[in-house]
Amino acid sequence: MTEYTQKIREIAKKLLSEGKVDVVIGFREGTVPLMAEPCLVSDPAGVDQLVFNSFCGVNLANYLPRRKDRIAVVAKGCDSRNMAQHIAENQINRDQLVIIGAPCTRMMDRRKVAAAVDGKDITSVAEADGRLTVTGPGFEKVLDRESVLQDNCAICVHVNPVLSDEMLADPLPEQEKDRYTDIREVEAMTPGERYAHFEELLSGCIRCYACRNACPLCYCPTCFVDESKPQWVGKSIDPTDTLTFHFLRAFHCAGRCTDCGACERACPVGINVRQFTKKLEKDCKELFDWEAGMSPDVRPPLDTFRPDDPGKFIK
Amino acid sequence: MGIDPGRLHFSWISSAEATKFVDVATKVIEEVKALGPADRFVKEKAQVA
Amino acid sequence: MRFLKITKNDWARGVEGLKDSFRVFGPVLERSHFNFRPLEKGQEPDFSFRNTRLSPKSTVYPQSEILFTYTLDKSRPDHHVHKEPPRDETPRAILGIRPCDAKAFGLVKLNFDTPEYKDPYWLSAYEATTLVGLACDEPCSACFCTSAGSGPFDEAGLDVLLKDEGDHYLVKVLTEKGGKLVSAAGWAGEASGAEKAFVDGAAVAAEKITSFVSADKLAGKVTNQLHNAKFWDDVAFSCINCGTCTFLCPTCWCFDIQDEVAGTDGVRMKNWDSCMFPLFTLHGTGHNPRGQKTDRVRQRFMHKLKYFVDRYDKGIMCVGCGRCVQHCPVNIDIRRVCEIMNEYEPEPETCPA
After folding, report:
1. For chain B, which residues score pLDDT lower than 50?
2. Domain spans of chain C?
3. Which of A267, C224, C232, C317 has the fewest Cβ atoms nearer than 10 Å?
């Protein structure tokens, strides 16, 4: 990944000094192990803070809506799909963007890494040859990279950017994967069991909205839960209100979600929020043979009508 | 979501099909009544500490 | 100051005994992390935690709390009367609170207990609570308590301080409240000379803190200059305006009051709110004085590191627990921001030519 860092800096420097873009959006080194911070660079002298590593899980497409300037942005496979989605939804213009494509070797889950060392304090990590060496006071542990991937990355079938103007490396092989084993388990439940499952899943939710705010799709000027005139959803931690928030948000992402994992990654209390969005992603795949964000030029299935849309549910 | 399938119904009814509307509405009401009061996604008073 | 030595068996028996007269809270493992929860009969606090994911502030300041209920139904004799729900005034004990989090109660108290106003909900819960701290022998790398006015053995907010000695605890009874709890638990067994163990332990633990903030120059800064400084856009860029930092923070105290009415029956409640949310400052007119995310990020840091410092002269509104540092999804680090603010020198004023 250090080659990526080097190339990102070169490309950023070139684009900024030649005046091709106004700003570059990428990542800088985190202040704690297992993290990287999204950052914006507008001065060619500042490009050396840019890095790329296995902890760049934040979806940078989130930082694009409403920008008026010309932007170079680093994009993993999922980020690029959300950028395509943004373009299709008129959130950004294609010609504002220089997409620096990063064929993604899949991001690591900081919480899984922490769990793999029994929650011990991690002071540094080093990555080489598919392994992660984690060190802290009085211990060192080598982890297999595959065992600590973000859940969505482990089942990702589009690691390569779908849109790019610059590429940091040749495309990587894509994997074949059954993406929906967990969803089928939930589908097999009775309605009552399913409701209980969701209640349990959300029992720790603190309504901080990190899932929503980390999501590139959630760019509404005012989210329905923040409406106060009228107020649609209660603001306490009442379980029905919490369920309502999560379900409605997921439905609003139907046919648009790329399973980038930003929601789950952001959740401070470790809720598998992707359980909701993934079901809708599966339905879109099965009903419309649709994967979101694969092209900026095709209308998503839920904002268009086709005579052959499935209609068996209409009685 | 955990809603009983019998509580959700979709029909395509033209504005000219008044009798179909009556039939469907009657049938749906009967089905839902048979299921009894809903206890999911129902909030009487906020359940908080 | 009394010192006791209790075996782990005595501890477990005492905790169980306390439950007869106290509502006992302790760290409990939930899924992947720990939180403070009420302990059931037979349930022991799990002291294998480093710290809890959420701060223990919710033990006296629940995320959602009903203030009163009412009915608008005029056929009922009590219509339009505010009825307080029965409050549980049973003494509470929080076992294993970290010294930094206990110190935070003291900072929050500055807001909820002033000469002019006293928040009856927070204050009655706080007064009913006895804080039994567990000294931090292994502080985390993201902890910066020693430079945030606290420390791994800080006694400031505590009634009792425990030090884990392997097969037993050393107990330092700090207040009268603490003494009552210790008697209720049946813990006796004076430990003479234990004072040294605490002094030495504190020194050893403080040595292990590797992370610091400098806050010494904050009070001397000119508020408006700091407010108008150019660095805020860079600090705020990555922020997604979620409430993780404020909801996990032991010192964030802001709340919102909401009425919820179903039919003719209503409740008024108090919910945690966050300065990160646009709705926090949205006026009835639709105007929002903190309309941009930079405004909101600046507010959070200015409140903690400048306004609070100036208003109370009690240091920064942060105890260095490190939760926001560890769990901010985009890695905004209060230590870095504090450093930037502390070192800030205003750009020289130039007259336009």
Report:
1. none
2. 2-54+88-208
3. C224
Instruction: Enumerate residues 24 to 43 of chain B having a beta carbon within 8 A of any beta carbon in chain C.
Output: 43
For residue C62, what is the nearest residue in chain B, using CA coordinates?
B49
Which stretches of chain A sit within 8 Å of chain B by CB? 191-198, 234, 236-241, 243-244, 247, 311, 313-315
Torsions phi, psi for C3 (to 5 deg): -120, 140
Count A/C contacts: CB-CB distance under 8 Å: 116
Contact residues, chain B, for A247 at CB < 8 Å: 1
* pLDDT tens for each residue of C8-63: 999 999 999 999 999 999 999 998 899 999 999 999 999 999 999 999 999 999 99
Per-residue pLDDT tens over the stretch C224-270 = 999 999 999 999 999 999 999 999 999 999 999 999 998 999 999 99
Please give the ipTM for the structure prediction. 0.94
Say if the Cβ atoms of B2 and A314 lie within 8 Å.
Answer: no
The 10s digit of each residue's pLDDT in A150-159 is 999 999 999 9
Name the phi and psi angles at C145, rounded to 5.
-60, -40
Contact (Cβ atoms closer than 8 angstroms) between residue C157 and residue C99 = yes
Note the helical H segments in A47-169.
77-88, 110-116, 151-154
Specify the length of chain C in residues. Answer: 353
Q: Domains of chain A: which residue ranges?
A: 2-109+149-301, 110-148
